[in-house]
Amino acid sequence: MNKRDFLAAASLAGILPAATAAQVAGTASKDPAVLTLSGAAVTRSNRGALDPALDQMMVKHGIQFTKAREFDAAALRRLPAVTIHPTLEYDAKVHELSGPLLETVLQAAGVASDAALKVALRAVDGYNIALSLADARRYRMIVATAIDGRPLGLGGLGPQWAVYDADRIAPFKDKPLKERFALCPWALYHVDVAA
Asked: What is the spatial distance between Cα 82 and Cα 141, in angstroms, rounded to a whole number?
């Protein structure tokens, strides 16, 4: 083995274990994050503190955190999905929405199934609602990533929409259509989980 081959092999040997350790630790993807979860209940973080220079929308919305869990679109698609068929207020038609349960996303971020936890859901336009994890579970709220078999897009209802099947849930099914989805921010990009 010549000196050049030896140095190349030694360099690779130093890099590969670091890459493997980073993958095991659940580091952030190289693809852009589409959903960020923060709060003390998030125990599987893959990013550090909010960056005031680079996290401009979060800063403008008053979000703060020292660690968080980011999901890219592929990571959300890898979670087990469920499908619902609500009548949407925007066109009064039944649509197929699919994506993981909100509770499944929370579990992937290391959040315990503590019904007393509060979940704050924030959309890109600043719309922000809070509900208990117990209610999110009872409503079978999903993080929809697709509508009628197509990915939800930014500028529409996506790339994620926290939503439930309002046609089949007692507190909502008898309300006028325009009042059924007040707890369902579309263009969801941040979830804060607190005690």
From this structure: 10
